[in-house]
Each structure stands twice: as structure tokens, then as C-alpha cells.
Amino acid sequence: MLTNKFIFLALVIASFTSLTAQDKKLNFFIFVADDQYMDSLGCYNDGVTQTTPNIDAFASAALKFTNAYTPSAMCAPSRGALYSGIYPLRNGLHANHWKYFKEVKTLPDHFTDLGYESILVGKNHVKSKGNKYYKWSRQVANEEGIPGDPSKHRTFNDEKITQLLSSLDKPFVMVYGSNLPHAPYIEEGYKGFQKYEASNKFVDDEFGRFMKIFNTLNLEENTVIIYLSDHGANIPWSKWTSYNRGVKIPVMVQWPGMKMSAETSALISMVDFLPTLLDAAGKEDLSSFDGKSLVNVIKNSSPSQHKEVFFAHTSMNINEVQEPYPIRGVSDGRYKLIQNLNPSIKHPKVKEFYTGEATEWELYDTSKDKEENANLVNNPEKREIFEKLKKSLLAWRQSQQDGGLEAEHLIKPRTNTKKAEAKKKKRKGTKKGSSK
Ligand SMILES: [Ca+2]
């Protein structure tokens, strides 16, 4: 009798425990570094970088992706893809400082439907104008606290974030948009580092501060944590281009309840993160996204669902650029095919790096040619791979309703409003002065 009672009690406790574990919904946190290129992290560079100890420690207990790409090496289109799960040409946020098409649903809206708080801390860079589906339930602006010139960059307030997270009565999805290591770089000499490295160290400190908050609040056991960068840095062949130093991004994931200390070469894209998080949160229909859920890649080491990932870039709506230089591209993880739609001009943003003649097509074997120097497009041995990738790219462009060069001519050039205002003020001041 006693034994039966004991068994019954044990069963009740067991079912209660499993129920609470199931009922407790996962939280999600994405840390987004700004303009951080992959090789500047120790964990992607044989550990030689001294600036990123917190991120490296996280990576050593995470699943590290070595074949992750953003579709565009620019702030707004990259974030636009992250928050929509849709490539920039199809979500509308193709040009920098641009906005979504009005019917595109985004991360905060999807998660509100699932009963979550959606929190954006720090950098936004995505306009909500004209789109009612881009509305975070909480937005926390960064504050001063960066050494050097505090007017240029800001950081989060640890106490405010701690209070906010401990006050929630719903599960949450939180994104932190750091302002660094984006130029202008922070005070030289920060913890012994200079320029980019000093800024990179600051990002690492920020990440460490978030991990401390999660640890203090005991949130780690129930929170999926993703570390990534929006794209590469403002260095040659990186930001503004579709070369790997620009579009290949560091991505590390820690998943609760899983021991992870591994890396995967699964081919993934920025558009995959939203469907992944929604899949884990219980959304069933993920068919509207260009991205694919990574839950099985992460939890079961399944292969990637992509054979290829794609790139789309425009120089229009970048400050002071007058002419469109559209780039489209595709990578199968090894071969990269780039199509320049206006090769008659040099890339207006990075023309100082271009020495030779621009061509419409560029083909690289990125497994052997990491710098993407040797264009294989006229190599007869690579003819088959060229034709295959070209076919995929053209089919993808069609599926994205890409208007190409003609459509980009319709985007009005953007003037730097801050600079223009300063000039205007100066002109007014001069007039005033001269009338005296
Ligand atoms: Ca950026």
C-alpha cells in the first residue's frame, strides 16, 4: 500500500515537473554587433584575437556556424532580413535607410501573436513608417557611457535591462543592437586597444554584461541566445560589397538544455533566424518566409535546407551616392557568383579599391581563394558551375521580382541631412555676418 502511494506520488511529481517544463515557453535573445567582420573574433581566428574573450567563451559552449551569410553588407537591409525572414528585394528594405513594403509582417508582430513581449534595445535602423507590422512592444534607447565622444555612440543601461526583464510576466524575444564596432571608433587606448580593436573590445564587454544579467536573473536555462554581426566592417572588400569579408557573418547559438561545443558548416542566411525562433516558439506555418527553420540543424545536426543563399545590394540611398551600382549574388557555400548590373561605372562607395576593369560576372572558389581575387568566370573548367549558379541566381531574381538597374534608377539619391543642415546653417551665419 505504502509502495503504491509512493509510486502514485512519484508519478504526480514527475508529470507536474514535465508539465511545467513544457509550459515554460522559451525566451529568445539576439545580440547584433554592428559592422563586425568575422575574422576579428578570436573564436573565428584561431583564438589569436585578444579583444573578444567573452564572445569566445560563449562560442566555446555554443554551436558555431562557419557558413552564415547576410544578403546585404549594409545595416538596414541586413536587419530588414533578420526581422522579416524575407530577402531585401521582396521585403522592400533593399536600400539603406529604406523601409519595408507595407504588408510585410515582422518579428515583433509575429511574436505578439504568440503572446510574447518583443523588446528592442539600442540600435534600430529600420523605419516603421507605413508598416503597422513593425512595432516592438518595448523599445529601450541606449544611453551615454562609452569612453571617448559620447555623442557618437551609446550603450545600454544594465540596471534598466535587469529591472525590465525581472518585471515581465510573459516570455520575451529581445534584440540588442550594439552601435559598435561601427565607425567612428571609440576612444583610443580603451583597455589597451586602438581604433577598431578598442571598439571590438567594447562590444565584447557589452556581451559580457548581458550574460551577467541573464545569469543573475537565472534566465540562461530557458533562453535561446544568438550572437551575430549584421555584416563586415568598413575595410577593403567588406561592407558595401558581396565579398565574403562583407557578407559572411559570425553566428553562434546556445540552446537551453543542450550541451553545445561544436561547429557546423551548414549553409545559412540571415533570413533563417526569424523562422527558427518562430518554429521554436510553436508557430506551425513558416511557408511565407524565404528563410528556413534551423531548429533541426541546431538540435539534430541535420543538414541545411538551403543549397544556395543569395545576395542583393544597391548603392542608392547611401549618403551622397548619385548612381546605382546594383550587385546580385549567390553562394553554394564554396563557389560564389556575383552579377554587377552596372559594370560601366565603378562601385561609387568603394571605388578606391577597384583597380581593374569591372565586369558583369565574377566567379570565385571561396574554399581556395578566400580573398576572392581570381575571377574564374572565363575558366573553361568552371563553365558548368558558372552556368548552374547563373541559372539559380536569375531564377531567384525573378522570384524576388527584382527590377534590376532600371528600378534602382527610380530611387532618389540621398543627401546627408546632418551635413546639409550644417552647410545651410553655415551659409545663414555667413549671410548674417556679411550684412553687419
Ligand atoms: Ca552595420
From TrEMBL:
Residues 1-21 form the signal peptide. It comes from the Bacteria. Pfam families: Sulfatase. InterPro entries: Alkaline_phosphatase_core_sf, GAG_Ulvan_Degrading_Sulfatases, Sulfatase_N. Residues 401-436 are annotated as: Disordered. Keywords: Signal. PANTHER family: SULFATASE (PTHR43751), SULFATASE ATSG-RELATED (PTHR43751:SF1). This is Sulfatase-like hydrolase/transferase. It comes from Lentisphaera profundi.
